[in-house]
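P.,

For your records, the input lines for the assembly:
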Amino acid sequence: MAGKNCVAIAGDTRFGVRNQTVALDSNRIFKINNRTLFGMTGLNTDILTLRESFKFQMNLYNLEEEREISPKTFAHNVAQTLYSKRFGPYFITPIIAGLEGEDYTPFLCATDLIGAMEFPKSFVVAGTGEESLMGVCETFYKENMEPEELFEVVSQCLLAAVDRDALSGWGSVVHVLTKDGITTKRLRTRKD
Amino acid sequence: MFTLGSVLDNDFKSTIEDFSFETEFSTNQLMLPNIEKPFEFAQSIIGLEKDLQENENQLMFHQQKKEERKERALIKGYKGTTTLAFIYEKGTVVAVDSRATSGQYIASQSVQKVVPVNEYMLGTLAGGAADCQFFLAHLGRICNLYELRNNEKISVAAASKLLNNILYSYRNYGLSVGSMICGYDTRGPQLYYIDSDGSRLKNSLFSVGSGSPFAYGVLDAGYRWDLSKEEALDLGRRAICAATFKDSYSGGTVKVYHIDENGWVKISDDDASELWYRYEEKEKKKK
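Structure tokens returned:
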């Protein structure tokens, strides 16, 4: 979700196989650089593979370009990587959130599994509980929220949506990205 | 499609002199739809919500082979629940969760999965909620009539046998019932598992539902005949709590009941997640 010169990404930390919960600490939100956060949902093996793949690509970019990648460029990179597997896709739904440019304008991007990009101004959702998330974010979202308020809203949205989805929960993490840095907090979620 | 009208009419007609066991407890009291081949139609409409989508397609492809359709009709799962019950020296313990899911959407966190049959017998709900609720309530009426006619309390074995016979006559109609009849009678604490396939099993402990493998783990490890009352209640509570933690389709609140010679009593009703955090803290303190 986007606020005033800040963005927040939140996600649950459950890893499960059909109905069984296997792990409570699978992190799916990764920091690309100080300006960009990248979250993925979907098939766990593809999440792990793409994490390594993008880490490699970003390291190479830093060495060649001698600068940090901007969120918009990274989003296009993600879309291109996903489309390269158009006929044997990675089964993930990525979300990119970052702060663009000198004046730290919030940037949000969501793509589908083959790289169709969307740049909404308010919020992006993904996962098994995305329909609940969409509804609850729509209700609580306001423009130009300060970081503290943004954190509250994002946390409440995630908790509410996760409590209505059987396959989500068992721990959650919220990252808030401002020009001063990234704040990470873990929320107490339902473990049933 | 199914109405209660014919059921009530039947009971109203029979008088005390005209006590015919056949008509009183006769099966096929539920009305069937007034169409050709009602049996096949009933098979294609399976009770569980999430199968309805598949069944609409089934009706379109009615040319498909009977075997295929029969196999699809028999595919049903007691999804989205964990219930358990066990008997021990001092009585019967029944513990249930309270979540209902339709697919992965949590439809409700506050479902009553224990239905009282009479003051000393409880039935648990697993599978199709409407099926279980109706047949357990019907069983309650039959038991009440038996008590009035014979001037003695019906035994758990007899009550479960009555339900079993009724359900057997509706075998393959697509009912989904995975109920446990738990009670205390002259023979002591009793526990029977009744299925809509027509099985009736007697044992000292059962767990039914999608979370039952996880509950069995805790239950089997801690079960003994000579448990104290507090230990037994705690065992039931822990087993359901473990199942709600591990199984995504179980959750909500953990309800624990106890049945002894004085009847059934609801012991506790705790939020499943809060209970888990409490057990975690206790473990940390021990270390």
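Two observations worth noting. Residues 102 and 142 of chain A are 24 Å apart (CA to CA). Chain A touches chain B at residues 16, 19-21, 128, 132, 163-167, 170, 188-192 (CB under 8 Å).

Regards
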